[in-house]
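$ ./design --mode recover --in tokens.txt
reading tokens...
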């Protein structure tokens, strides 16, 4: 589906603009995620840091609205019904990227109730590894998407699923730790937000290997091969 989608985007100027806007949105969400991670793991963030993150999230939201407007305008033209499947894919992917921006913003909000820096222990070290894994899959995912690279996408999807499982294990470890309430909440929220960011990246990558009707439903049986239908 993705190879056809990218070909579709390159076929005419209005469509090419949609594709460029989506790739720009994806790139912005990646950098926002990395920046939010820096703030989440830092001992303390400033009001200016948070304002910068919020502004970048607003820019992502504006691009989402712009792409939706472009899709609606395109489909209102006579003779564009054949493009409907590709437009539906784009709308789905745009929503995933918009949600990534929201979760990245949420990471920076944890500082509101965390009284101290995160503990220097094995649990937080594991969460830092999860962060690195999510950011790595996100960064490489941009290339896999742009190049319609199914093999790379499959590797990154498995990596993303591994990160999600590690997040679940982390939350169980926190439940059995001696953390105070504020620290436990901060670590659990961090794990949940990274799981959701990774999940939405996985949804975007699913477009590389899955047909339209199976986007967002990438299951284990299909995880070992390119999608067939």
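writing sequence...
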């Amino acid at each position: 589906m993705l190879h056809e989608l990218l070909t579709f985007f390159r076929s005419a100027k209005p469509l090419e603009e949609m594709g460029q806007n989506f790739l720009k949105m994806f790139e912005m969400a990646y950098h926002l995620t990395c920046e939010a991670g820096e703030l989440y793991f830092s001992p303390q963030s400033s009001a200016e840091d948070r304002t910068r993150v919020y502004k970048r999230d607003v820019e992502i939201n504006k691009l989402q609205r712009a792409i939706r407007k472009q899709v609606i305008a395109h489909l209102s033209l006579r003779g564009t019904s054949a493009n409907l499947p590709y437009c539906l894919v784009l709308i789905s992917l745009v929503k995933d990227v918009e949600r990534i921006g929201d979760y990245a913003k949420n990471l920076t909000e944890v500082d509101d109730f965390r009284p101290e820096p995160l503990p220097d222990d094995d649990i937080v070290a594991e969460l830092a590894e999860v962060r690195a894994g999510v950011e790595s899959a996100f960064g490489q995912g941009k290339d896999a998407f742009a190049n319609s690279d199914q093999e790379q996408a499959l590797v990154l999807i498995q990596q993303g699923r591994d990160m999600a499982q590690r997040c679940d294990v982390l939350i169980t470890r926190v439940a059995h730790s001696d953390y105070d309430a504020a620290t436990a909440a901060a670590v659990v929220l961090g794990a949940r937000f990274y799981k959701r960011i990774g999940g939405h990246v996985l949804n975007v990558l699913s477009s590389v290997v899955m047909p339209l009707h199976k986007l967002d439903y990438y299951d284990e049986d299909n995880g070992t091969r390119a999608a067939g239908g």
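exit 0
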